[in-house]
């Protein structure tokens, strides 16, 4: 039997809730134990950003930061809707309500500066969910997107990467990584039924990883020990640097 992640108002329906939880609990079989080696990205201004997998115990810090953006005042570039959706996805990740999700964080001097998440639909297809940054630092959005696609292709071994873009600002990533488009509306993305833009493993390894203009965004390994240690002393950003 599996214990529910949060208190449940009844103990039997008429079954024990632990039995029901076994049916509601989402699988992590495709991502469990699949490590992502942290890497270092240096922005155009020289800031050192550590990209690594988030830990579930860090979710309260991520959620605290996202919650501040769930407000119509942050409607530019659709930050408010992206924050709301990312909040729900990270919360679902912590409570076993989203199948095979993973979350990557970008950390600068201990501060959370961005979140990038995705999930595996099956062993062959990764679904990009959201990308959001809390500070305007040169190229971190592109570097974070590259990091979560890298994990899907190079660690999890998927054959296709499915994305969609909720704003023209975000769609630039699709153009930059030269995504193709699935027939629409026959094939729809799970984030509201929008078009699916995709890359294949062949695109990733034989095109994008060889493009000179993309190489700075792939970062370097290993991360110096002091910077890596500092990244695990995670705290919310001191301020949100969002253009309004």
From TrEMBL:
<dbReference type="InterPro" id="IPR016181">
    <property type="entry name" value="Acyl_CoA_acyltransferase"/>
</dbReference>
<protein>
    <submittedName>
        <fullName>N-acetyltransferase</fullName>
    </submittedName>
</protein>
